[in-house]
Specification:
The complex is a heterodimer.
Chain A: E1 5-8, E2 20-23, H1 29-34, E3 42-45, E4 54-56, E5 62-65, H2 70-74, H3 77-82, H4 84-91, H5 96-101, H6 104-108, H7 160-166, E6 170-173, E7 177-179, H8 180-183, E8 203-208, E9 214-221, E10 229-240, E11 243-252, E12 259-260, H9 262-268, H10 275-286, H11 297-313
Parallel strand pairs in A: 1-3, 2-3
Antiparallel strand pairs in A: 4-5, 5-8, 6-7, 6-8, 9-10, 10-11, 11-12
Helix pairs in contact in A: 4-7, 9-10, 10-11
Chain B: H1 18-23, E1 39-45, E2 51-56, H2 59-62, E3 67-71, E4 94-95, E5 101-107, H3 110-119, E6 122-126, E7 145-146, E8 150-151, E9 154-156, H4 159-164, E10 168-176, E11 188-194, E12 197-202, H5 207-217, E13 225-228, H6 244-256, E14 260-263, E15 279-287, E16 293-305, H7 318-321, E17 326-336, H8 349-367, H9 371-378, H10 382-395, E18 407-409, E19 412-424, E20 431-436, E21 442-445, H11 455-467, E22 474-477, H12 494-510, E23 517-521, H13 523-528, E24 535-547, E25 553-563, H14 570-589, E26 595-596, E27 601-602, E28 621-625, H15 649-661, H16 672-675
Parallel strand pairs in B: 1-14, 12-13, 16-17, 21-22, 25-28
Antiparallel strand pairs in B: 1-5, 2-4, 2-6, 3-5, 7-8, 9-17, 10-15, 11-12, 11-14, 15-16, 18-19, 19-24, 20-21, 20-23, 24-25, 26-27
Classes of the chains: A alpha+beta, B alpha+beta.
The structure holds flavin-adenine dinucleotide.
Protein name (chain B): Xanthine dehydrogenase family protein molybdopterin-binding subunit
InterPro entries (chain B): Ald_Oxase/Xan_DH_a/b, Ald_Oxase/Xan_DH_a/b_sf, Ald_Oxase/xanthine_DH-like, AldOxase/xan_DH_MoCoBD1, AldOxase/xan_DH_MoCoBD2, AldOxase/xan_DH_Mopterin-bd_sf
Keywords (chain B): Molybdenum, Oxidoreductase
Chain lengths: ~325, ~675
């Protein structure tokens, strides 16, 4: 294991020296260091910064500190009451012990679970640009059907981020505000670049607008608990008189980032809140899917989930 | 000594070492404090599946701080002849699989060893590799024997004619993936040399076997190798014989003159210590219209390695399970550029009975005959028939609509399934010693290993009864190769084998007329015993529900009824039975080592990716058993119980999935992506 030094961050704007990385709960970063996939020289612990509050915002929304632990956020009364999609997504992720450590920002920035990325002895364009992507021909059952590229088909593994995407969350950093959808970049030919954040840019909070409808998260995985999603859907829905007044949909485990289903939303607004419109909307989004040998099942899975989750909310 | 002492056998005693384990006092192989110059080993594994290792740049590293030695075939000490070529570590330049140990770094700290290992420059001439098992692989051959010593092929009657003439026929192919044992405690050794003698704190299933094997490699008689194995965090067969960690630790200690600790990381358990071969099994069943089998044909294909032959006995249980006038079985192997497959809980029976018991379900469907009744009609074993009958009653089988895809609650399709289980009752020679202590207690010693199963506890119960002493007056010492020699904790034979020796020693002490010590060796008696045709049986029943929206499978109920000899301790027995059943659930639904043919290796190598059932997957599980002592088998009347739970339970789940949905999954594991397209 590579030798590194450790220090505690003491202010929000101190940035990072070259070769340094922020450390939050460490549940992803430390694993990757043990695997030799992440090799920072310096760890700067951000968990002592005053970023662990959840507070109401004047517009009726919520500000979630970057350091709030996933387990605390999941049971926060306002989250449970006004943003059940978020609480459900958090509780569907990892295990109790991991959620006790994991933080809001760390969760957003966790890396893909692509089995080639997680193995330092394998070629991977994220490890070493140009070394290739064995997943295209190899193991990709749980990799992207949307938004991938010949260089990379990794999926973003977070549940929480899918819910936040459907909630139109905004990420605050020490330098700017970013719509969550703009935080992540698709792999294209530079899959090593995963977000727009610059080196040393610190996430300070995630802001939620006021609640805008009923919401739910449904996660599908290969066993009953303690597994990453093979497909998930987060939905926020408002129905007036049997018609879809407003809808926000995001898909998990199908793309390199939490996938906001704009086309599906577009196809649904103003339409009757029925199973057939839900299915048509899902199809509108999934028409762009480019499945590989072993992951086409995700198309059926997401289609079924969209209909089932929206039917449950309508 | 009184005759009113309550018999200890049959009581649900808690594990003797339980408190030590839950308080952290129990020590495992990598936890022993052995002096202040302990060094740490880290294995460098081959990044290619086939080739030659031509050079290793050792010098820059050995000069680095804290690195004590970098060993590879160019500088490693020569070893004596190994019966198991996987143990001839660092002896030649051939690379036979990806992940093979090609170098060892020993350093003052674990971190330094790891870092040096990661930066080691290997010069390798890679060659094209072949890692994919196919039923039409051009190099398939028939091994002479299959594990442990069965003929590869068997044939009675004219199977082809009987099959062709059968009123009802099933001809199906089932596939099981490579599986990894990956016990909770990774393989680990702390090795030190005391003069010319070798001491190994090692996690294994057979201390005397490790002593003999590792001794031979270092030209030492077994008596000069002291293997200490007090606690073992599981093995499932993968610790049945020595693994490279023991040899490498001893080698590192020899070269550096320090004690060396070598604990394999979890990832290495998915390449270096064995696995269950993937199988491709064709089953053909022919039957009369009233459900009597006329032909049974079971042909299994598996792989072995380039290093040596391990032939899983996949089709062997088909030879006795059902009665038919024509039965044929056979095994073929391909040598692949892969690690050598090894024992994994119920080698042979677990994959083989999956195929046979699913095919029986398919036959029952074609016959429109109840699958329990089909089995009853075709077995000659009374105890199996009883397990089926009583199990069906207890499970609540009978009100079932036999037609598939009939029961739906909300989004869930619901179904039930049954499958039979069998496991040979094996006994091996062992010896034990009973020694009276000054306070009147008795210490019983045997070089057995307790993998967490409760072996130590059950032996204490057996000894207490044989001595006529209360349970708490007996202390059992195991886990040390210098104690009287014991057989391997494998093949579900441990308790029967060791218990016999313990009974003998205790009876001898009791009847010795006041001697302080007695020993007993069961070899002569065991050799005289006819073990042929002795089996434990069972019947597994499952209720599953399959989500019509997502294809997710949940096992609502899993039930096992067993006839497995006298049950010596219901508490530890239950945990063996249900542990096997849960592992069977994993085999049916979760476990798969995913191969990347281009990379020449499995890409699943931790528990986040290689799924086993978690608590939430186990909703209701129950194991019950018949009172079934077999007094002719051994003094306890017991049979092995460690493996039968994984035999047939996967088939019961697959059959239940079919009953729920109408979908036959013939390619394990039965994951949602295989169900979803047809829901
Ligand atoms: C076995 C296992 C199972 C899991 N299962 C699931 C699951 O089912 N669903 C799921 O969603 N997740 C799952 N996870 C992942 C888990 O949710 C993440 O590991 C966790 O959320 C990461 O948070 P952390 O605080 O520990 O981040 P860390 O590991 O500390 O950091 C992760 C990344 O975020 C960066 N970072 C942290 N804080 C900041 C900040 N304030 N500003 C800028 N950068 C920052 C770090 O530099 C690092 O790159 C699982 C993890 C494990 C180990």
């Amino acid at each position: 294991m590579k030798t590194f030094t450790y220090r505690t961050a003491t202010s929000l704007d101190e940035g990072l020296e070259p070769g340094a990385t922020f450390l939050a709960g460490g549940t992803n970063l430390v694993d990757l260091m043990k695997l030799g996939v992440a090799t920072p020289d310096v760890l700067v612990d951000v968990t002592k910064l005053p970023l662990d509050e959840v507070s109401d915002r004047p517009d009726g929304g919520l500000r979630i500190g970057a350091g709030v632990r996933n387990s605390d956020l999941a049971v926060h009364p306002r989250v449970r009451q006004d943003y059940p999609v978020l609480s459900q997504a958090l509780l569907a992720g990892a295990s109790g012990q991991l959620r006790n450590m994991a933080t809001t920002a760390g969760n957003l920035l966790q890396r893909t679970r692509c089995r080639y990325f997680m193995d330092a002895t394998m070629p991977c364009n994220k490890h070493e640009p140009g070394s290739g992507c064995p997943a295209q021909e190899g193991d990709h059952r749980n990799l992207a059907i949307l938004g991938g590229s010949p260089s990379c088909i990794a999926t973003h593994p977070s549940d929480m981020a899918v819910a936040l995407t459907a909630l139109d969350a905004v990420v605050q950093t020490d330098r700017r505000s970013l719509a969550l959808g703009d935080l992540y970049v698709l792999p294209g030919s530079t899959p090593e670049q995963e977000t727009v954040l610059s080196h040393g840019e610190l996430i300070t909070s995630v802001d939620l607008p006021d609640p805008r409808g009923k919401s739910a998260y449904r996660k599908v995985r290969d066993r009953a608990s303690y597994a990453f999603a093979v497909g998930s859907v987060a939905a926020v829905l408002r129905v007036d008189d049997g018609t879809v007044a407003d809808v926000r949909l995001a898909f998990g485990a199908v793309a390199p980032k939490p996938w906001r289903a704009y086309r599906a939303e577009e196809a649904l607004r103003g339409r009757p809140a029925t199973r057939s419109s839900f299915l048509e909307a899902a199809d509108a989004e999934l028409a762009a899917a480019t499945p590989l040998r072993d992951n086409a099942y995700k198309i059926t899975l997401i289609r079924n989930l969209v209909a089932s989750v929206l039917e449950g909310l309508a | 000594m009184t005759t009113t002492t309550e018999r200890a056998v049959g009581q649900p005693h808690r594990r003797v070492e339980g408190p030590d384990k839950v308080t952290g006092a129990a020590r495992y192989a990598a936890e022993y404090q052995v002096g202040d110059d302990l060094a740490y080993g880290w294995v460098v594994q081959s990044p290619v599946a086939r080739g030659t290792l031509t050079a290793v740049a050792v010098d820059p590293l050995v000069e680095a701080d804290d690195v004590l030695a970098v060993l590879w075939h160019g500088n490693a000490p020569r070893l004596g002849k190994a019966d198991d070529p996987e143990l001839a570590v660092l002896q030649n330049d051939r690379i036979s699989y990806r992940g093979q140990a090609v170098a060892l770094v020993v350093a003052r700290t674990l971190e330094a060893a790891r870092e040096a290992a990661a930066s080691l420059q290997l010069a390798i001439d890679a060659e094209p590799h072949d890692t994919v098992l196919r039923a039409d692989h051009p190099d398939l051959y028939t091994p002479e024997k299959v594990n442990p010593d069965f003929p590869s092929e068997s044939s009675t009657g004219d199977v082809d004619a009987a099959f062709a003439g059968a009123a009802v026929r099933v001809d199906v192919t089932y596939r099981t993936p490579a599986l990894h044992n990956s016990p909770m405690e990774p393989h680990a050794t702390t090795a030190l040399w005391a003069g010319d003698d070798l001491v190994l704190y090692d996690s294994n299933q057979h201390p005397p076997g490790i002593a003999a094997t590792v001794g031979a490699l270092f030209d030492l008689p077994a008596a000069r190798v002291h293997v200490i194995t007090e606690h073992v965090g599981g093995g499932f067969g993968s610790k049945g014989t020595a693994r490279p960690n023991a040899v490498l630790a001893a080698m590192g200690a020899k070269v550096t003159g320090r004690p060396v600790r070598l604990a394999l990381p979890r990832q290495a358990l998915f390449s270096m210590v064995g696995h269950r071969t993937p199988t491709i099994q064709q089953i053909r069943l022919g039957a009369t219209a009233d459900g009597k089998l006329t032909a049974v044909d079971h042909q299994a294909v598996g792989h072995t390695s380039r290093l040596f032959e391990f032939a899983e006995q996949t089709a062997v249980s088909t030879r006795h399970m059902y009665e038919a006038p024509a039965v044929r079985t056979g095994h073929r192997l391909a040598r692949l550029d892969m690690p050598t497959p090894r024992w994994m809980r119920a080698p042979g029976e677990a994959p083989g009975m999956l195929a046979l018991e699913c095919a029986m379900d398919e036959l029952a469907g074609s016959l429109e005959l109840d699958p329990v009744e089909l089995r009853v009609r075709n077995t000659g074993f009374d105890s199996y028939r009883k397990c089926l009958g009583l199990g069906a009653d207890r499970f609540g089988w009978h009100d079932r609509d036999p037609r598939p895809r009939r029961r739906r609650e909300g989004d869930w399709w619901i179904g039930t399934g049954v499958a039979g289980a069998t496991y040979p009752a094996m006994i091996q020679p062992s010896s034990a010693r009973a020694r009276r202590q000054p306070d009147g207690d008795v210490e019983v010693s045997i070089a057995a290993a307790d993998l967490g199963t409760g072996a130590r506890t059950v032996l204490t119960q057996i000894a207490a009864d044989a001595l006529g002493l209360p349970y708490d007056r007996v202390r059992v010492r195991i886990g040390d190769s210098t104690l009287p020699q014991a057989s391997v904790a494998g093949g579900s034979s441990g308790t029967a084998s060791w218990g016999w020796a313990v009974t003998g020693a205790c009876r001898a002490l009791r009847e010795s007329g006041g001697l302080d010590e007695a020993t007993f060796d069961s070899t002569a008696l065991v050799e005289k015993l006819n073990q042929e045709g002795k089996h434990a049986f069972g019947a597994h029943f499952a209720e599953v529900r399959v989500d019509a929206v997502t294809g997710e499978v949940r096992v609502s109920r899993l039930y096992g009824m067993y006839a497995a000899g006298r049950i010596l301790n219901p508490r530890t027995a239950r945990s063996q039975f249900i542990g096997g059943m849960i592992m069977g659930m994993g085999m049916a639904l979760h476990e798969e080592s995913v191969l990347d043919p281009a990379m020449g290796t499995w890409v699943t190598h931790d528990f986040a990716e290689y799924h086993v059932p978690v608590h939430a997957d186990v909703e209701s599980i129950e194991a019950e058993w018949l009172d079934d002592p077999d007094e002719g088998l051994n003094p306890m009347g017991s049979k092995g119980i460690g493996e039968i739970g994984i035999v047939g339970s996967p088939a019961a789940i697959l059959n239940a999935i079919h009953h729920a949905t109408g979908i036959r999954v013939r390619d394990l594991p039965a994951r949602l992506d295989k169900l979803l397209p047809s829901l």
